[in-house]
Description:
CATH topology of the domain at 1-129 and 437-442 and 450-521: Rossmann fold
Helix content: 55-70%
Shape: elongated
Radius of gyration: 45 Å
Number of strands: 15
Largest sheet: 6 strands, antiparallel
Amino acid sequence: MLTFLKIRDFALVEQVELELGPGLTVLTGETGAGKSMLVDALGLVLGDRAEPRQIRAGCERAEVTAEFSVDGQDTVREWLAEHDLDDGQCLVRRVLARAGRSRAFVNGTPVTQQDLRDLGERLADIHGQHEHQSLLRAESQRRMLDAWGRHTGCAAEVAAAHRTWRDAETAHAALAQDQARDGERRALLRFQLDELTALEARPGEYAELEEEHRRLAHADELLGALGTLCEGLYEADDGSIHDRLGRAVRELRELQRLDPALAEHVEALDEALIRVQEAASSLRHRVDRIDLDPQRLAQVERRLEALHGAARKYRVEPEELPALHAQLAAELGDDEDPDTRLARLAAAAQAAGEAYASVAKTLSRHRAEAAEALSEVVTASLQELAMPGGRFAVELVPLADAAGSAGGNERVQFLVSANPGQPPQPLARVASGGELSRISLAIQAATAASVDVPTLVYDEVDVGIGGRVAEIVGRLLRDLADQRQVFCITHLPQVAAQAQGHLQVHKSSRDDTTSTSVSALDRKARIEELARMLGGLEITAQTRAHAEEMIALAGATG
């Protein structure tokens, strides 16, 4: 329930703060005073699109803040909890900046406009001045019937099942068209896989071959250089490094007797002598393993050439050939035979079609039951709205397409007969605007109980009616307010008299500036406002008495 609304620098509103309560609250005022601006401001804070023109002239920003009570509102509390915004309240704020984008906050935390719209749908439902026009659309009529029958969940299942069915049939048709191309692709995969299988490239083989090729190609150079090095280290007759180090160790030991501190140097040279001997031995073993094998070199070169050729053909590095082989094998192994896959997709499409048919049939049954009940309820309301003999009917027209639609197997159509003896006609053919408004109100009153949102807002939904019918409309709205918080912008005193709360909107000008303000009326002020609505320019004592009587009678009947 909306408990507080603050508007600052929005359109013609400079600043308005309203404390709001349950029941029916009406907003009245002269034409052009700005009553609809309040509805626009509430729509903005509920996620409507923001426009810079909504900012008051001469101001850089506008701000709308609304506080909602969430007691007993499970859907609202669940949404807040899912978004980590539940702190026991629901405070929504929207800020419009002329120089930038609008910003939205819930309980002080920034949210996106889409999130705000999702939350707003759970908080309030706004019916604009031309709301009855949306009732002329088949889609709106279908949604209203589903909401009233409380089978929107089933309708959503039908839509999802239809999408699944369409997707399955599309996949089947696409594969059927591409069978030839798919066969060519498989043949190419098989040829490539066979070629790489014959190549037998092993992981790491290319690096091993490159190393062996370098060794074999430079065997002469390695043998000569390493032989010379081994001779200089250990084998030279004219004094190898090993011999010279040995003499140095012996001489240093002789000197150690004169200077014991030389012991650590003797030890270091001993270690160097051992290292040289080990290095010379290791190099000699390496020389012995170097093989001058031209035949093996030719084999390695042929193998490297084969790997390079395959790599160029498949546009990969030579070392990537084993991985490519594995990839092709996996792809060909995972790819079903086209006929097998086609049969599988055909079976999936058939199963999806049967699933859709099942849930659509259930939805059709629910709709038939709801259509009959809604027809009776709205027809009864029409009798009260000065349409004696008027009849309302919900018709379910089977679709000619056997494939159905995302909306089910039938088209929902609202029919009405305004006068006795006339056959019901589609709602769009009702000629009288006043009759259409009354029919719209009867439908909305009948379906309001099926709406989960706690606050309903009607912007001049009672346009085109008056007299006794206006009083009945007021009572309908008041009855509706027993179940929901209801706000209604009205020009009808018969409707305004039924309200528990009354807000007056008035426009004033000063210093070449125009502004709209809102006042909560007490009983005396309400009488004056109703008298104005009844009497026009001149308000007499009799008009005031009539206004007071209307309020008293409404309170007595309420």
